[in-house]
Design goal:
The chain has 618 residues and is an alpha/beta fold. Helix content is 45%, strand content 11%. The strands form 2 sheets. An 8-stranded mixed beta sheet has the order 4-3-2-1-5-6-7-8, with helices on both faces. It has a 6-stranded parallel beta sheet with strand order 11-10-9-12-13-14, sandwiched between helices. Its main location: membrane.
C-alpha cells in the first residue's frame, strides 16, 4: 500500500534545521562538482601542454637527426640528464619536507664577508646562524678567509689574523659581547681573495664590480670578496675530491646562499642544487641601482640577465628582503633580518624615561655615497631653501669615497648639514636624537632604519618598495614627494632648537610587543623558518633553462687557461687565475695554503687596473 500524502493535502515541510542541512549538503555537492570539473579541465590543459611539448621535442629531434647525428646525441644526452636531475631533486624535496616537518635538518649558511668587516653580509648571516642555533637547529656558517696582506683592504684599523682560529675567536667574542647571544654552531672558512692594495678606485662596493662589464678590463674593487675555487666543497674538513664526497650526510640538507649572485659570478665548483637537498638564496644588494648610476643602462641590462641566470641555475628558491630587488626566478619577498637586542633594550629604556629628553634634531647615518641618499638629501634641502621655508638642520654621520664631494656641494649651496665621522649607532652620541632621516632609494632593506625604530625614534622614509616593511610601525613618517619630505621635516624639526616646545608631535610611541617581535632576530628567525617550510611545499624543480645556464657557466669557469682569460677580461681581479686549483694537491688543501698560493699565482699588480671609477650621475 502506498504511504504517500492523501489527495489534496500539501506535503509536510521539513523542520528548519533539516532544511538548512539539506541546503548545505546541496551546496557542498555543487562545490565539489565544480572543483572536480576544474581539476579535469586543469588536467586536460596540462595533458595538452605536455603533448604539445612532446610533439615539439620530436620535431626538434627529427631536425637534429637530419642535420647531424652528433647533434642529436648531445641534445639527447642533455635531455636524459635533465630528467634524471629533476627526478633526483624531486626525491630530495620529498625527503627534506619530512625532515622540516620533524625539525630534523641541518642548515649550511654561506656568505661573502666576515667580521671584523662591519658590513651587512658579515653581520646578518652571523646573527642568523646564531639565532637558528639558539632555536635548536644544527647550523654551519661558512665565511671567507683572506690572506693577511688582503685583510688590510677590508678590515678596520689594524686588525689582522694570522690563521682562521684567531679570526673565529674574534667573531665569537663580538657575537657574545655585541650580538648579545651565545650559540653553538660550526664556523668554517673557505678560501677567498680581495683586490691588491694599490687598486683602490673611488666608488662603492657594489658599483665596483659592475664596472667590470665595460670593454676595458680591470680588477674588481676593494671591499669586494670573491671565492677561490669551489666554495661549495669547503664547508667542512673533508677533502673536496668529488661532488658526493665533500660533505657529511648530516650537512647536506638546506643551504642558504647569502648574496647568491655574488657567490656564483665566478663559481667554478659543483652545482649547489646537486650538493644540497634545498638551496635558498637571500638577496642583500640592489646591484641594478648601482649599475644604472655608475655604469649606465646597457650594463644594468647585462647585469639583470646575469643575476637571473645565476639565481635560476644555483637556487631552488630566492628570498628577496624587499620588493626593490629585480624579478628573479622562484622568488618571494620576506624580511628575514632583525636588529640586535641592544637596540631594543635602548628603546625599552627610552620609553621608561631612563634617558634625558632627545633634543638633538635629526641625523642621517651611513656610508657617504651619492647613491646612498646623500644626493637626494641635498636636493630636498636645496628645494626647501628655494621655497623660502625655514632651514632644516641635519647631522650626517659616516665616511666614504664621496664624503669630500658631498661636503663641498653642501657648503656651496649653504645648506645646514653638519658632518661627523662614523660612530656606533647604539652609542651615547646618537641616543640623543629623536628623528632619523633616510632618503636612500638604493637600499634593499635599511638596517639603520630598523635600528632607529628599535631605539624608539621617529624615522622619515620614502614610500618605496625597500621601506614596505617599516610602514607597519607607528613611528614611521612616510613621504611620497620632496614637498612631503619637507613637511615631515618641518613638523618634527622646525622647533628642535627653540625652547621649550620643540616638537609638535611629541615623543615617539613606545614599541608594542608585536612591533618588538617584528624587529627582533627571534621574529626574523621565525619568518625564515616559515619560508623554509613553504619552500618544501612548492614546485622548485630545475628547468631545462636552469640546466643549460649551469652547463654554459661551468664550461666557461672550468675552461682552464681559456677560463682564466675570460675571467680576467670580465674583471675578476685577483681570482681571475684559477686553473691551477684543478691540480689534485689543492683539492684537500686548507684555506690558508690556498690563499697563500693565490698570492703567489696572482701577485699584486698582475690584474689589470683601471685608474678611477666613473663619476656618479647626478
Amino acid at each position: 500500500m502506498c504511504r504517500g500524502n492523501p489527495p489534496g493535502r500539501p506535503a509536510a515541510k521539513a523542520p528548519t534545521g533539516t532544511a538548512n542541512r539539506l541546503e548545505q549538503r546541496k551546496n557542498k555537492n555543487r562545490t565539489a562538482h565544480a572543483l572536480r570539473v576544474q581539476c579535469q579541465v586543469a588536467h586536460f590543459c596540462i595533458y595538452q601542454a605536455a603533448e604539445r611539448a612532446r610533439q615539439a621535442s620530436l620535431r626538434v629531434a627529427e631536425l637534429l637527426r637530419t642535420l647531424h647525428p652528433a647533434a642529436w646525441l648531445v641534445v639527447g644526452t642533455a635531455l636524459v640528464q635533465h630528467r634524471r636531475s629533476r627526478a633526483a631533486k624531486r626525491g630530495d624535496l620529498r625527503e627534506i619536507r619530512s625532515q622540516v616537518f620533524t625539525d630534523d635538518f641541518h642548515i649550511a649558511i654561506v656568505t661573502t664577508a666576515a667580521l671584523p668587516w662591519m658590513t651587512g653580509t658579515a653581520i646578518n648571516p652571523l646573527l642568523r646562524a646564531a639565532y637558528l642555533s639558539k632555536a635548536g637547529r644544527s647550523v654551519t656558517l661558512a665565511v671567507p678567509w683572506l690572506h693577511p696582506r688582503e685583510q688590510a683592504l677590508v678590515f678596520p684599523g689594524r686588525l689582522r689574523f694570522a690563521d682562521p682560529q684567531a679570526q673565529e675567536r674574534h667573531i665569537r667574542l663580538w657575537l657574545a659581547e655585541r650580538g648579545g647571544v651565545r650559540a653553538d654552531f660550526r664556523l668554517r672558512f673557505y678560501p677567498a681573495s680581495s683586490p691588491p692594495t694599490q687598486t683602490r678606485p673611488r666608488t662603492s662596493r657594489a658599483a665596483l664590480f659592475l664596472e667590470s662589464f665595460s670593454p676595458a678590463p680591470f680588477t674588481v674593487a676593494t671591499s669586494l670578496i670573491l671565492p677561490l675555487g669551489d666554495a661549495s666543497g669547503r664547508l667542512n674538513a673533508l677533502p673536496a675530491r668529488d661532488v658526493t664526497g665533500c660533505f657529511e650526510a648530516g650537512e647536506c640538507d638546506v643551504c642558504v646562499l647569502e648574496e647568491p649572485e655574488h657567490l656564483n659570478w665566478y663559481h667554478s665548483g659543483a652545482n649547489w642544487r646537486h650538493r644540497f637537498k634545498l638551496v635558498i638564496g637571500v638577496v642583500h644588494t640592489n646591484y641594478l641601482y648601482y649599475a644604472r648610476m655608475y655604469a649606465g643602462a646597457a650594463t644594468a641590462a647585462v647585469l639583470k640577465r646575469l643575476n637571473e641566470w645565476m639565481c635560476g641555475a644555483y637556487c631552488d628558491r630566492v628570498i628577496k628582503l624587499s620588493g626593490t630587488i629585480q624579478p628573479l626566478p622562484r622568488a618571494v619577498v620576506c624580511n628575514v633580518h632583525g636588529v640586535r637586542s641592544e637596540f631594543l633594550e635602548i628603546g625599552r629604556r627610552a620609553a621608561r624615561s631612563h634617558f634625558p629628553p632627545r633634543r638633538a634634531g635629526a641625523y642621517f647615518l651611513g656610508k657617504v655615497l651619492w647613491a646612498k641618499g646623500h644626493r637626494l638629501l641635498i636636493d630636498y634641502l636645496a628645494l626647501q631653501q628655494s621655497l623660502g621655508q625655514p632651514p632644516t638642520h641635519v647631522d650626517v654621520y659616516g665616511g666614504g669615497e664621496d664624503l669630500a664631494e658631498v661636503e663641498v656641494e653642501a657648503a656651496a649651496r649653504e645648506l645646514r648639514l653638519s658632518f661627523f665621522p662614523p660612530t656606533d649607532h647604539s652609542g651615547a652620541t646618537l641616543r640623543r636624537y629623536k628623528v632619523f632621516i633616510n632618503p636612500s632609494q638604493s637600499e634593499v632593506l635599511s638596517t639603520t632604519t630598523a635600528e632607529a625604530l628599535a631605539m624608539g625614534k621617529f624615522v622619515v622614509v620614502q614610500r618605496h618598495p625597500s621601506n614596505d616593511f617599516f610602514m607597519q610601525f607607528r613611528n614611521t613618517l612616510p613621504y611620497d614627494t620632496p614637498e612631503e619630505f619637507l613637511l615631515q621635516a618641518a613638523t618634527n624639526l622646525l622647533g628642535a632648537f627653540l625652547e621649550p616646545s620643540w616638537n609638535l608631535l611629541g615623543e615617539p610611541e613606545p614599541l608594542s610587543a608585536e612591533e618588538r617581535r617584528a624587529l627582533s632576530w627571534e621574529g626574523a628567525t621565525d619568518r625564515f623558518l616559515e619560508a623554509v617550510s613553504n619552500c618544501t611545499l612548492s614546485d622548485v624543480l630545475p628547468t631545462l633553462g636552469d640546466h643549460a645556464t649551469r652547463w654554459v657557466h661551468a664550461t666557461v669557469q672550468k675552461g682552464g687557461p681559456v677560463g682564466d682569460r675570460l675571467r680576467r677580461a670580465s674583471g675578476a681581479g685577483p681570482v681571475w687565475k684559477q686553473s691551477w686549483l684543478a691540480q689534485e694537491k689543492w683539492r684537500a688543501a686548507p684555506p690558508t695554503e690556498i690563499v697563500e698560493a693565490s698570492i703567489l699565482a696572482t701577485p699584486p699588480g698582475m690584474a689589470p687596473v683601471r685608474a678611477s671609477a666613473a663619476p656618479p650621475r647626478r
